[in-house]
Amino acid sequence: MQILALNTGSSSLKFAIYDVHPPSGSESEATAHCVRQRHGVVEGIGRSPSTIRLVGSDGETRSMEAELADGRAALSWIIAELERDGVWNDVAVVGHRFVHGGREYREPVLVTPLVRATLEKLIPLAPAHLPGELAALDAIARARPDTPQVACFDTAFHAGLPTEARLYGIPRQFADEGVVRYGFHGLSYEYVTEELRGSGQLGARTIVAHLGNGASLAAMAHGRSVDTSMGFTPMGGVVMSTRSGDIDPGILLYLLNERSMPPARLAATVRSEGGLLGISGTASDMRDLLARSPTDRRAAEAVAVFCYQIRKCIGAYMAVLGGLDTLVFTGGIGENSPEIRERVCDPLGCFGIRLDAQANAAGSRIISGPGSPVTVHVIRTDEESVIARQTLRVVLRPG
């Protein structure tokens, strides 16, 4: 059996095909495993041109460009490529990443018309993500109407957050209606946690920093999420590429009431025009900002704010956990930027976070120095493999 895992982003689409070996009749579900056969990513969807990277089962990489106006066009291109490779017809089930599961979904679920309708109602909670994810779901349903599909939720990893971490300081009726902290990047956090657990390196007190265009941190006690920086929507927490992160609600009221800013304009300001782009006025990509920083004061300030907020969050989560054993960097920035890791960690030496400069520069798996009380890891996340495993669990579920 083969599983297609789809990871739909706001401007990217990752996919992977997995060969699945289910357990035999006498074996437990835990013995099932997924082997990645091929994978790829389409980036810059909606820009001209989009870039595509495909990796075959033999490890051979192909890169190309195409005009892909939206996620639907990108998915059609991927399906056509899988058809050319002769593997599309072998796909038995499709698993999707869904950013938000709301109160309704705390674990992966087989998609039914009722599930599809419920997810549609959640769009206001993640308007930059859910429409594209639903479009991918619908495109597969049109192309393969008899193929089962599974929704895997980023929010599910944080479903057990303690009450004190989940509640906001607003009237309780809103919490009862679902206005609470949900947390996101759960598929990535699950992958990192399992990687640490499998290698015997999961500390009792762990902080994971998923740093990319969207960025968040999570505090984990024995691998269980106890707090996380994103909240009711993926817009909260530390400053991100174009998202403001946490902001004084009085600012929003001021812009609405005193500046007469229409709600749609306000939404764009904090969701797609804020963050690193808003602070710098020039760029949202951390690579560009680091390159500009020596001669561009605002670019340097954007980088400084990013690193400062991450350090502040790490300090807060150390208080939540009662100390720290393990710190992990993951996500595009966390995995690939030694400078950001250094600027986050160096001021935290008083808390036992000490990097080995050479290991950090090389992007080694462990970048903390000898004798450091806190072990610092760099782990390349793989959300698609988590989607495949969760999808398999749903397929194997009795009934």
How would you portray this structure in words?
The structure is a single chain. With 399 residues, this protein is of the alpha/beta class. Helices cover 37% and strands 21% of the residues. The protein contains 15 helices and 13 strands. The protein has helices spanning 71-84, 113-121, 130-143, 163-166, 172-176, 186-198, 249-257, 263-271, 275-280, 286-292, 297-321, 331-336, 338-345, 357-362, 383-396; strands at 2-8, 12-21, 33-43, 50-55, 61-66, 91-98, 109-110, 149-153, 205-211, 215-221, 224-228, 326-330, 375-378. The strands form two sheets. The protein has an eight-stranded mixed beta sheet, sandwiched between helices. The protein has a five-stranded mixed beta sheet with strand order 11-10-9-12-13, with helices on both faces. The protein is globular, with a radius of gyration of 21 Å. The model has no long low-confidence stretch (mean pLDDT 94).
Give a quick rundown of the structure.
The chain is built from 15 helices and 13 strands. The protein has 399 residues and is of the alpha/beta class. It folds into two domains: 2-177, ATPase, nucleotide binding domain (Nucleotidyltransferase, domain 5, 2-Layer Sandwich), CATH 3.30.420; 203-378, Nucleotidyltransferase, domain 5.
Question: What is this structure's SSE topology?
Answer:
Blueprint: E1 2-8, E2 12-21, E3 33-43, E4 50-55, E5 61-66, H1 71-84, E6 91-98, E7 109-110, H2 113-121, H3 130-143, E8 149-153, H4 163-166, H5 172-176, H6 186-198, E9 205-211, E10 215-221, E11 224-228, H7 249-257, H8 263-271, H9 275-280, H10 286-292, H11 297-321, E12 326-330, H12 331-336, H13 338-345, H14 357-362, E13 375-378, H15 383-396
Helix pairs in contact: 1-3, 6-15, 10-11, 11-13
